[in-house]
Design goal:
The chain has about 300 residues and is α/β, with parallel strands linked by helices. The protein has 11 helices and 9 strands. It has one domain (about 5-290): TIM Barrel, CATH 3.20.20. The radius of gyration is 18 Å and the shape is globular.
């Protein structure tokens, strides 16, 4: 099943993102998380590619196994980092052979120790080139998603330029986009409004992460350029040494975000799980109790700022 067809059904999608584990203990944790979240019947799950393409083999193996053994629609992240065109062609062929119909096309982060992205000889500099490459090979045979940044990409100094870069990427063949994490919903709705005004019409799925660890969220926001509202940042600081209180805060804030997003027409929610299930399960349970998991939506109908 292609994700664009799931989005066209008129109900909010709920999806989870995982990353390939680096240790046996982490692998066991991921398997338990997948088992726990499978009970929620997600619309799809995605598996990241790792900095510098370092987890390529594990990404292929995990998405293939999730689709084959768990019966969950899976999407593989695919980046430009460290790969030639022929290597990317081979990865796409292996994914298709495994029955994977969805790919998230990304430029990717520079390998560890490097501050600037440099393509390999025979590789791609930008994600829009990767999108064109995928479309040229598989045309409509693959559903292709991409990333977007409500508070702009950290490497782009001009939000308008960043948005035009996104439009170029979408014009090359993206079916939908998923946002980077954010904690103030107005950033999302302002971004959607700007996107619609320049002719971007694909579904824009908000990416949400529940705060469970102060140091972790501070590191993530610094990496991706997201900002914490002042009051939320103050509460994170106050609870940083109390894991239970931090979890309660993270679940409450993320749940409020999701309810507001869905009420105002967001096409779904993509949860950045960090390979943990507890917070996501609590949020989803709250949404299910209040009826949001069955709410009708119209793709592209987000209420936005003028």
């Amino acid at each position: 099943m292609q994700i664009r067809d799931v989005l066209a059904r008129g109900r909010p999608t709920f999806s989870f993102e995982f990353f390939p584990p680096k240790t046996d203990e982490a692998a066991q944790q991921l398997e338990q998380t997948i088992a726990d979240l499978r009970e929620l019947e997600p619309s799809f799950v995605s598996v990241t590619y790792g900095a510098g393409g370092s987890t390529r083999e594990r990404t292929i193996e995990i998405v293939s196994r999730i689709k084959r053994d768990r019966g969950i629609e899976a999407m593989a992240h695919l980046t430009c980092v460290g790969s030639t065109r022929e290597e990317l062609r081979d990865v796409l062929a292996r994914l298709r052979d495994a029955g994977i119909e969805n790919v998230l096309a990304l430029r990717g982060d520079p390998p560890k120790g490097q501050t600037a992205f440099t393509p390999v000889d025979g590789g791609f500099q930008y994600a829009d080139e990767l999108v064109s490459f995928i479309r040229g090979i598989h045309q409509a045979g693959l559903c292709v998603g991409g990333a977007c940044y409500p508070e702009k990409h950290v490497e782009c100094s001009n939000p308008a330029v960043d948005l035009m870069n996104l439009k170029q990427k979408i014009d090359r063949g993206l079916d939908f986009v998923i946002t980077q994490l954010f904690f103030n919903n107005q950033h999302y709705f302002d971004f959607v409004g700007r996107a619609r005004r320049i002719g971007i019409s694909v579904p824009i799925i908000p990416g949400i992460i529940p705060i469970t660890n102060a140091a972790q969220i501070e590191r993530l926001t610094m990496m991706c350029g997201a900002t914490l509202p002042y009051d939320l940042a103050a509460e994170v600081h106050r609870r940083r040494d109390d894991p239970k209180a931090m979890l309660e805060l993270g679940v409450a804030h993320a749940t409020a975000q999701c309810i507001d997003l869905l009420l105002r027409g967001a096409p779904g929610i993509h949860f950045y799980t960090l390979n943990r299930s507890a917070a996501t399960r609590e949020i989803y349970s709250a949404l299910r109790k209040t009826g949001f998991t069955n709410r009708e939506v119209t793709s592209g109908s987000e209420v936005v700022s003028v």
